[in-house]
Amino acid sequence: MASTSTAGISEEMDNSLLPIILDGTFFNVQSIDKGTSIVTAKCCNCVKDKFISGGLPSTANFLTHLWQLHPDSVKEYEDRRKSLEPALKKQKLEAKNSNDNASQLSLLSAGFSIKTVAK
Questions:
Q1: CA dist., res. 32 & res. 29, Å (int)
Q2: Are 45 and 36 in contact (CB under 8 A)?
Q3: What is the number of alpha carbons within 13 Å of residue 22 lying toward its C-beta?
Q4: How confident is the model over 65-100, as pLDDT tens digits?
């Protein structure tokens, strides 16, 4: 059985790794199933508690909800995505490069030569 987390979402996952639509402006993440990456999030625009589930890498369910029930929020989401996306891509690339550098340092400390690591 896959583990599901319902508390401490911000502690477990860096919010910068979440898609923009799940950053708390439109949906608040309630749980993430670590085994399947299924996200359950509460809509911030619905008067009653409305929970939407969808995959972490794909935001179609969340965007469809906005289109169908909150069409006025779609433009706001698109504007927000366009303004934040370049910075998020840069941040993710820097994190990836940092991990790559750490891996190279580990290989060097294990006795591999710089030429081998660079390949």
A1: 8
A2: no
A3: 29
A4: 999 999 999 999 999 888 887 776 666 667 666 655
Domain positions in the chain are 4-85
The tokens describing 93, both together, are 């690339």
pTM of the full predicted structure?
0.63
Alpha carbon 15 to its chain centroid, in Å, reads: 6
